[in-house]
Design a protein that fits this description.
The protein has 437 residues and is of the alpha/beta class. The protein has 18 helices and 12 strands. The protein folds into 3 domains: 40 residues, no CATH class; 237 residues, NADP-dependent oxidoreductase domain (TIM Barrel); 149 residues, no CATH class. The chain is globular and about 60 Å long. The structure holds iron/sulfur cluster (SF4) (2 copies).
């Protein structure tokens, strides 16, 4: 849906067009239910740990540099924006600057992030932060995070902390944070998991906010981190809260090849029988449990994440106005017994197809050091978040062995997966999608 169509059918679009909310009741973007004005407002705010700022339970994650989408979210009451220096190579920060400069700066909490690259000196970190401030057109950044900290050593980086101390004294940065979504196997060794890095960061005491992976299929590690965040009054923000949607993609790709009369590639033929059997079982399961569409499962998944009292906000990646509407409707929602049933059924029938974000347990069994978890994360961007170009760029930029190594491999990683993910097939397919789409 484009903004013009959204303006026609959506309450929020109407607000964007200057039509008072209370006058509008429209059909929802999904076209099945009536969406009321109240449903499309933020309904709950939570204290972001020791920052003292009350954040909306649904917040603005990556928005692909789309000013209209970000404005719409803020108009609805979203007041936490998560971004990064690298998002669109500064494009997202520029868009945030354009949107926020027209508003009361104090009404919004902006978090941005820096990867700690080779140059980790205080001087370089200060210079990069000043560029973030310029792009964001603001005098201060509420929270500056280390982007995807790669190991426990990273959280102690002297250059970063010295830079932050100076910028805090100047009033340019208010709080410091850290994000992590899994290992960078093959780039840095030894492997260090999200849980280990974030627990060490909590212990370190200098981090006020965290951004971590937590969802109903990848919950144990996140729960440990969230508990410690609560004990230490650290703000807890979430990403990758919706693990649903990957498995059907593989099947539809095979169907498409058959429809077009094209040959099924050799690597697919090799792994197809096992995969097809799993998909068949999953579909039986979906029928039996009446799991009609992935929207229902996604909504239950977000409510599951927000149901954890230690979670302060879920960062929503919104590429379309349908997604904006879908996320806003979840604000203030409660996790219901029906949600519990849906997620349990999904986990039992389809959980096998989800390579857990921030896991990486199988990676040490790969003789070629293929970064399984990173590749499957890019595949998730491609398949579940429909960010095809971005996913392909990330994959192409991997400095490690890629999943082409998997095409002629026996798949040792699969035996090492405690969740029985058919990872060999998924990796072969991810390589195909991320390379040739
Ligand atoms: S395949 Fe299994 S063990 Fe490997 S990263 Fe994915 S979930 Fe973890
Ligand atoms: S399929 Fe083979 S090459 Fe690919 S990650 Fe697994 S063990 Fe490594």
């Amino acid at each position: 849906m484009h903004r013009r169509e959204f303006l026609k059918v959506s309450t929020l679009g109407a607000v964007g067009a200057g039509i008072p909310m209370h006058k509008v009741i429209s059909s929802s973007a999904r076209g099945r239910t009536q969406t009321t004005t109240d449903e499309l407002k933020v309904k709950e705010y939570r204290m972001l740990g020791r920052t003292g700022f009350k954040v909306s339970d649904i917040s603005a994650g990556e928005h692909q540099g789309n000013e209209a989408i970000l404005s719409t979210l803020l108009d609805a009451g979203v007041n936490y924006i998560d971004t990064g220096e690298s998002y669109g190579r500064g494009r997202d920060e520029r868009v945030i600057g354009q949107v926020v400069k027209k508003r009361d700066r104090k009404s919004v909490f902006i978090t941005t992030k820096l990867y700690l690259s080779k140059d980790r000196t205080k001087k370089s970190i200060i210079e990069r932060t000043r560029k973030c401030l310029e792009r964001l057109q603001t005098d201060y950044i509420d929270c500056m995070m280390i982007h995807s900290a790669q190991n426990v050593g990273t959280i102690k980086e002297k250059g970063f902390h010295d830079a932050m101390s100076e910028l805090k004294t100047e009033g340019r940065v208010r709080f410091v944070g850290i994000s992590n979504h899994g290992t960078h196997w093959g780039i840095l060794q030894p492997e260090e998991a999200m849980e280990k890095i974030l627990l060490a960061a909590a212990e370190d005491g200098r981090f006020d906010v965290m951004l971590l992976v937590y969802n109903f299929l990848a919950k144990e590690n996140g729960e440990k981190v969230l508990k410690v965040c609560a004990e230490k009054n650290i703000g807890a923000t979430l990403m990758k809260t919706n693990p649903v949607a990957d498995y059907l993609y593989f099947k539809s790709e095979v169907e498409q090849l058959e429809k077009e009369g094209k040959d099924i590639p050799g690597y697919l033929k090799k792994v197809l029988p096992r995969y097809e059997q799993l998909v068949e079982e999953a579909q039986e399961f979906i029928k039996k449990h009446n799991l009609k569409n992935t929207h229902e499962i996604r909504d239950a998944a977000i409510r599951y994440a927000l149901n954890n009292p230690h979670v302060h906000t879920v960062c929503a990646t919104c590429n379309t106005f349908e997604e904006v509407e879908a996320f806003l409707k979840l604000s203030g929602g409660r996790f219901t017994p029906q949600d519990k049933k849906i997620l349990a059924a999904y986990a039992q029938g389809c959980g096998i197809f989800y390579c857990r974000h921030a896991c990486g347990l199988c990676e040490s069994s790969c003789p070629d050091h293929v970064p399984v978890n990173s590749i499957m994360r890019y595949n998730h961007y491609f398949v579940a978040q429909h960010r095809e170009k971005y996913a392909m760029q990330k994959y192409s930029g991997l400095p490690t062995a890629k999943a082409d190594r998997c095409l002629d491999c026996e798949g040792q990683c699969e035996a090492a997966c405690p969740f029985n993910v058919p990872i060999h097939a998924l990796l072969c397919n991810a390589h195909h999608s991320l390379t040739f789409a």
